[in-house]
Amino acid sequence: MSAGAIEIKDLRVDYGDFVAVNDISLSVPYGEVFGLVGPNGAGKTSTFRVLATLMEPTYGEVSLAGIDILENTERAREVIGYMPDLAPVPSDLKLWEFLDFHADTHRLGNRKERRARVDECLDIVNLTEKENAWCKALSRGQTQRLVLAKTLMHRPSVMILDEPASGLDPLSRREMRHALQKLAKGGATVLVSSHILTELAEMCSSLCVMNEGNLLASGTAEEVRAKLGKKERSLRATFLAENEAVLRWLRTDSRISEIRADGPDVTFHFVGNDEEQVGFLRTLASGGFGLKAFEEEGSSFEDILVQVAEENRKS
Amino acid sequence: MSEEWQREKMVPFWKIWANPIVRRYARSRLRPVSLGGVLLVFVLIAAFIFFSIRQGAMGQGQLELMDAARLPIVPLLVLQGLILFMLGTGQVAGAMTAEADEGVLEYQRLAPMTPLTKVVGYLFGLPIREWVIFAATMPFSIFSMWQGKVPLGVFLEIYSVFIVAGVLYHLTGLLAGTVMKNRRWAFLGSMGLVFMLYTVLPQVAKFGLVYFKYFTILPVVEESFAYFVPRSGQMVIQTMQELVPTARFFGLNFPQVVFTLISQGILILAMSTMLWRRWRRNESHLLGKVGAVGLFAWVQLVILGNALPLIETGQLFPSREFGRRFGRFAGVDPANWQPEAWEIFMMIGIFGVVTLAMIWMMSFLIIPNEEGQVRGWRRVRKKGGSRLSILSDPATATPWVFLMVAIGSVGWFTFAKAIVGSRWFPEFQLSSMALLAIVMVLFTGGILVQTILETKGRKFTILAIILGGVLPLMLGMIAALTKDELLPAGVWLIGISPMSWAMYASQVVVPIDDMPADVIRGIPLAFWFWQGVAVLLSLWMLNLLRRTRKEIAEKTK
Predict the structure, then answer these.
(1) Which among B9, B27, B378 is the nearest to A12, CB-wise?
(2) Where are the domains of chain A?
(3) B282 to A72: CB separation less than 8 angstroms, yes or no
């Protein structure tokens, strides 16, 4: 079962009658930044808490870097770096003390060696200047960065980050994205959740979508988009000039809807498979409408998530 | 392979100085700026106690240095108790709750340390400032004992028990902080518990429950008290020491210090187990089924072991101490003291009340909630099983309550038999229904609370206790106290409450006539009637529990 960095088999988490995670199985290879996407209540945090060894599942098997986390919890904790959502920090410690404590719990050498690692991690998250500040005095974004530094402290091979970018300004987000990608290149596996989905798509080499405790799809961003995107394709055609004739022609086709014209650009929804779309385009191009360009607009991740959330509400 | 790895990497629990959690709190709680002020205040108080008492005794009191130097020892112990027991325990409970509340506790959960190392880390880390302040006051105690020529053995006895008691109370605070959600309540509750240990429990000891006194340092202090007063106070000491029962455990006579350390050590072990279970798995019950019954049996054994040897000497009976202390004023001759008949009723009743309360307490610890049962069943089914292990947390507590009822019945009956068979009460005999009454009270009281808890949950149980336990007791007492005509009604009303059953059973076990006629007539009738109702209710509840558990099991299929 331990082929990938993260291996989940038949994982289930119940809260009484409520099924938070419903028999999911997942495999994440080493060195990947893997995103977990889903609306509130999808089961992301429960999954993360099980992976982080903070919660025992109802049942299921989970191994991280080849270690069965339910059998070898303490050992698994050596390889896990967990950053919770709205990461808290203690109010009675300074930044370097907070990090040094975590270095100590992971037995990262003597005082001098620990201090060197603390400085290194503070540098990664750009908080070196604040090393003697109290943790409680940090802004939200700085706190997130500090907790990321804590998460990196023991050089974990599997990092589990729950909404790490929340509260960060755009620059910090970009820095975090680069830092995570750099870590992944160094061999670490990063599992990350976020509501900023476009960013997640940019950051992650692959991802999965969860809803109501179930895994809906997983794969690369394109694969997930293809699987979960709307069945209707949004198409855009650009003509040489405004063309009333093409609009009339489009209205006669029952597969076409939502026609919008903006000068020479016309967008519309088309229902049909790939072959039908090829046939439709051939007709459009040969119909003498002056077709200049043609583009298929994929479903955005926001669209996908909104769609999933709406389906939730309806059910 | 993994175990070898753990041995190499992890800090063993006994290496307190290398424990990262201890070091973390040493850093945050021993900062010179914040520690300095507090330390100065307590050292000044200790210095004031030491010098004012010692100098005053030598100057105004005209005592020799050796006698004067002994006088600050007890006040210093009180100050140290305040620091370590009260402030330390409150700090542990409050800080633990705050850590959980702020969410930083999860970081420690994630630390690759064994659960026991984490427990030890918090136990000695959170109150580290109080330990340091305590240590700073020690030179005054050491100097007093040295100048007062107190033997080294006495010093070691006192402070070994003092430190073990400190650890015990801090563990209590840690447990309160782990279980309670509200920081203020955890802080106040745990301090209140320590306060109760030194005020209420010594009084309980006068009613035969001597064991609870060994949760304090009082027996050891009382035993060594001769060294803490001037030599001229020998008479007072002798009188006091006669009042102090030795630590008798069945036929064995332990030194107070040994029995105190054993009693506190067992409790430390039990609490450490509870915390270990919680750190190992957050969803765990505080005690396993076997652990809870084992602790119940141990407490029964020591209560009984302490009480039985005091029956023949008469030290068990409250009136003896009252006669010794206030005999002259009350017109009682201590030399011709004889226990009163009502003391049989009282002592047997109190033993039953404590036994039933212990069953309730243990039930609260081991009863599974619905969520736990659902998870347990799904886990079992996934593995292809069809039964929950009887020892697992999701399993029903019923068989274990039955076991506690059996153990408690044996203990309670033995106690009642020993009192009635003693030389003090030749005119009394155990009723032929004694054993039945005892078993019924523990069975109905234990099973009713357990089954209600398991089928309806904690909130409903608390409501049931208020409506079915407290309210009839209050109404009955009001009725009984209003006028004589309402006394029978009061007896019947009080009899509804399970809290009264053990006291009523006492009158059934050994009928005494030292009470108003209405009460003597009413108690047995009310007892058997309400016990009949309670047995039917218990059987109905057992059936309901069986059905409820079956439904839960079915829905997980």
Answers:
(1) B378
(2) 6-228, 233-298
(3) no
pLDDT in tens, A132-163: 999 999 988 889 889 989 998 988 999 999 88
State yes or no: pLDDT of A208 exceeds 90. Answer: no
Does the pLDDT value for residue B162 go beyond 90? Answer: yes
Residue of B nearest to A93 (CA): B28
B83-135 pLDDT per residue, tens: 999 999 999 998 888 888 888 888 888 888 889 999 999 999 999 999 999 99
Average pLDDT, chain B: 87
| CATH 3.10.20.30 correct for A6-228 | no
DSSP chain A: --SSSEEEEEEEEEETTEEEEEEEEEEE-TT-EEEEE--TTSSHHHHHHHHTTSS--SEEEEEETTEETTTSHHHHHHHEEEE-TT----TTSBHHHHHHHHHHHTT-SSHHHHHHHHHHHHHHTT-GGGTTSBGGGS-HHHHHHHHHHHHHTT--SEEEEESTTTT--HHHHHHHHHHHHHHHHTT-EEEEE-S-HHHHHHH-SEEEEEETTEEEEEESHHHHHHHHS-SSEEEEEEESS--HHHHHHHHT-TTEEEEEEETTEEEEEE-S-HHHHHHHHHHHHHTTS-EEEEEEEPPPHHHHHHHHHHHHHH-
Q: Which fold has domain A233-298?
A: Alpha-Beta Plaits (3.30.70)
Residue in B277, B375, B381 to test binding to A, most A beta-carbons within 10 Å: B375
By CB atoms closer than 10 A (0-12, 13-18, 19+), residue B555 is: exposed
CB contact under 8 A, A102 and B107: yes
- Mutation target vs B (from A101, A132, A135, A159; most B CBs, 10 A cutoff): A101
Give yes or no for a contact between A235 and A281, defined as CB atoms under 8 angstroms apart. no
Cβ–Cβ under 8 Å, residues B150 and B73: yes
Residue A229: per-residue pLDDT = 64
pLDDT mean across residues, chain A: 85
Domain ranges of chain B: 15-283, 285-322+338-371+388-557
B11, B103, B379: residue with CB nearest A58: B379
Mutate to test the interface with A, among B104, B276, B285, B381 (most CBs of A within 10 A): B104
Helix H, strand E, coil C: the string for A30-92 is CCCEEEEECCCCCCHHHHHHHHCCCCCCCEEEEEECCEECCCCHHHHHHHEEEECCCCCCCCC
The residue among B31, B29, B23, B26 whose CA lies nearest residue B117 is B23
> Sorting pLDDT into bands at 50, 70 and 90, what band is B2?
very low
**ipTM of predicted complex:** 0.79
Give the nearest chain A residue to B101 (CA atoms).
A88
Q: Residues B323-377: pLDDT tens digits?
A: 666 655 566 666 677 888 888 888 899 999 999 999 999 999 999 988 888 888 8
b vs e for A34-57, b when ≥16 Cβ sit within 10 Å of the residue's Cβ? bbbbbbebbbbbbbbbbbbbebbb
Answer whether A138 touches B (CB < 8 Å). no
- A89–B106 CB contact, under 8 Å: no
Chain A contact set for B114 (CB, 8 A) = 74
| Yes or no, beta carbons of A59 and B383 under 8 Å apart | yes
CA distance A216 to chain B (A): 23
Question: Closest residue of A to B373, CA-based?
Answer: A16
Contact B378 A93 (CB under 8 A): no
B527-544 average pLDDT score:
96
The answer to whether residue B4 scores a pLDDT higher than 50 is: no
pLDDT tens, position by position, B218-254: 888 888 888 888 877 766 666 665 555 556 777 777 8
